[in-house]
Structure formats: C-alpha cells, structure tokens
Write a structure and sequence with these properties.
34% strand, two-stranded antiparallel ribbon, Rossmann fold, alpha/beta, 12 strands, 6 helices, globular, 220 residues, single chain
C-alpha cells in the first residue's frame, strides 16, 4: 500500500487558488480559451513546486564577460498525461520543463447500461522510464482509478525512481483510492484542491464539471 507525500497547494496563499476559482466559475467556463489557459498556468505552478524536489547540480556557464557557476537540473523528468483533458496542464508543465521527454495515455470511462463504468486504456506512448523521474498528470482525480491504471500501464516502460502525481481537483475518495491502490511507495501527490463529495456517477461536487468538454468541446 502506498504512503505518499501529499502537497495540497490550495491550502497556501498562492495564485493557484485564483485560477482554480475561475475553472470552477460557470460564468468564466463559457470561454474555453480562458479555461485551457488557466489549466496551463496551473501546470506552470505545479512544475515550479515539483522542481524544488528534484536533484540539481552545479554547472559553469561561459558568459560574454566570464564564467558563472549556475545550478541546473541533473536530469529532466518525463511528463505523462492522460488524454484528452490533461493536454492544457501538460503544456504548462512542458513550458517549465522544456527539455523533458513526454508520454501520453489514452484512458477513458466505458459506461455500462447500469450506469457504472470501467476504465479502458487503449494507447500508451512513452520513452523508457527506468531510472527517471515521472510526472503523471490528469486535471481531475475523481475515483482515482484512471490514475492508478495509467501508472500501472506506464510501468511496462520501466520503473521510475520517483513519480509525482498531479491533479488540479480531487475528491477525498479519489485520494484514498490512490493511497491504497498504488503499487509503489515512491510517489508524491500534488493537488490544487480537494472536494468532499463524489456522486454515484463519479462526478466531483462541487467540482467544476467535465474538464475535457470545457476545454475542447462536448464529445459523443
């Protein structure tokens, strides 16, 4: 059973709270460009916070006037995203870790006639992960099943030295599911906000709605 370090950025006085409030606001949600941009900006904030936990090393950089000793990342992370809702936040993470390798997972809910659903993974594109730091993001952590299944699928590409799981909005149930279901303990959970309720159809309440639809339009 995993025992993660959990960082809830919404508990700090941070711009992430402003951006999350706009993601939730039904009056702002009508502007899909603004919605995507807010997710992208939140990705930037998560990237900055995660960067403080990575390994840095000294490097001499030659300037036009001499040599400066600078700190640089010892190794770039691999940024993995669950399609499609995660793409704007992925871009924010990638803007910060601009030399990072990338991975993509197609995971979705396949609904049954009784209203329940299964999580299906149809596509994984990833570089080798052995010995690397993985940042796995999805804007919504509702049941937590998609995140855990996606991580298990990525293990087929190798075992990361550490994984940072990133979600803008989570339910308490989703957090607990991740804690009990992750196969490894070498991970950190980064969250923007946590809501108490998860409906029978696995929607977070008060939540913000369907992040993928709000960012890219409704789907069949």
């Amino acid at each position: 059973m995993g025992k993660p370090k959990i960082h809830l950025l919404g508990n700090t006085s941070s711009l992430i709270n402003q951006y999350v409030s706009e993601l939730r606001d039904e009056n702002v949600q009508t502007d899909s460009l603004r919605f995507r941009f807010n997710m992208e900006r939140i990705g930037w904030i998560f990237a900055y916070e995660i960067s403080r936990k990575l390994i840095w090393e000294k490097k001499d950089v030659v300037t036009s006037l001499g040599v400066a000793s600078c700190e640089v990342l010892k190794q770039q992370p691999v940024i993995a995203t669950i399609l499609r809702a995660g793409l704007p936040m992925h871009q924010g993470l990638l803007n910060a870790f601009d030399k990072a390798e990338n991975a993509f997972i197609s995971a979705y809910r396949k609904h049954r006639k009784d209203g329940r659903f299964d999580i299906k993974v149809e596509y994984v594109s990833s570089p080798p992960l052995s010995g690397k730091t993985l940042i796995l993001s999805d804007p919504m952590l509702a049941t937590g099943a998609s995140m855990v299944l996606s991580y298990k699928e990525l293990l087929g590409k190798g075992k990361p030295v550490h994984t940072h799981i990133v979600s803008i909005l989570a339910s308490n149930q989703g957090v607990e599911y991740v804690k009990k279901s992750m196969p490894d303990e070498d991970y950190t959970l980064w969250l923007g906000a946590v809501d108490d309720e998860l409906t029978a159809r696995a929607y977070i309440v008060p939540g913000l709605g369907d992040a993928g639809d709000l960012a890219f339009g409704s789907k069949l």
